[in-house]
Amino acid sequence: MILTIRGTSGSGKTTLARRIMAHYPDRTDHYVPGRKQPLFHRFGGPNHARRLRVLGHYNSPTGGADTISAGLNFIYQLAEEGHEAGENVLFEGLLVSSDCNRFAAMWRRGLPVLLITLDTPLAECYASINARRFARAGAGHKVAAESHGDPTRSKWLAARSIMKRLQVMGAPAEYHGRDSAYLRACEVLGLTPELHK
């Protein structure tokens, strides 16, 4: 399965990826020459029939495919290489959230793909962005708020436009809230959900 998670800033993409990664006891990092951080992580363990390749690195509070500067074609190439190696693949980020054609091409070629767009309300996205900024900069941080030209709002609207195009095609693209996205990801990756007590 090649699973891509999308949404605007603060929607919960990285948090969801970390929840999935927490299911695996073993992690190895894949480095390439000229890059300080891993290009991707591999996860596995004795109770997991298939390894999970997670693109980008998660050695900082934010991570994912946005940490790969080589562009979308390279990101999708890494995803397909993981699938060809017999791995499940997970990738997320703002950069991939703007793509329609590459995902549709994988689906049309018969690859096992699923796109989850986080349907997080904008107010929750801004609250998450502000909490992250406060953690970094303290009380003097600039508060994120919705405005007509705001990039967070623009990405939120763009994700919906792309979802509409994919769903018209019949591609496997689904809206989910943060918790239902976790449950759906566990389902397609063969994981047992760990629900909050």
Would you kindly provide a written description of the structure presented here, covering whatever features stand out?
The chain is α/β, with parallel strands linked by helices and 197 residues long. It has one domain: 3-Layer(aba) Sandwich (Rossmann fold). The chain has 7 helices and 7 strands. A 7-stranded mixed beta sheet has the order 2-3-4-5-1-6-7, sandwiched between helices. The longest helix has 19 residues, at 151-169. The two termini are 29 Å apart. The mean pLDDT is 88.
Number of domains: 1
- Under CATH, the topology can be stated as Rossmann fold
| Strand arrangement across the biggest beta sheet | 2-3-4-5-1-6-7
Low-confidence stretches: none
- Label the CATH architecture: 3-Layer(aba) Sandwich
Report mean pLDDT, rounded to a whole number: 88
The secondary-structure element order is: EHEEEHEHHEHHEH
Largest sheet: 7 strands, mixed
**CATH uppermost class:** Alpha Beta
**Number of contiguous helices:** 7
Strand content: 15-25%
- Sheet/helix structural class: alpha/beta
Report the radius of gyration as a whole number of Å.
17 Å
Termini separation: 29 Å
List the helices and strands and how they pair.
Elements (H helix, E strand, L loop, with lengths): L1 E5 L6 H9 L4 E5 L9 E5 L7 E4 L16 H13 L3 E5 L1 H4 L3 H8 L4 E6 L3 H16 L13 H19 L3 E4 L1 H12 L8
Parallel strand pairs: 1-5, 1-6, 4-5, 6-7
Antiparallel strand pairs: 2-3, 3-4
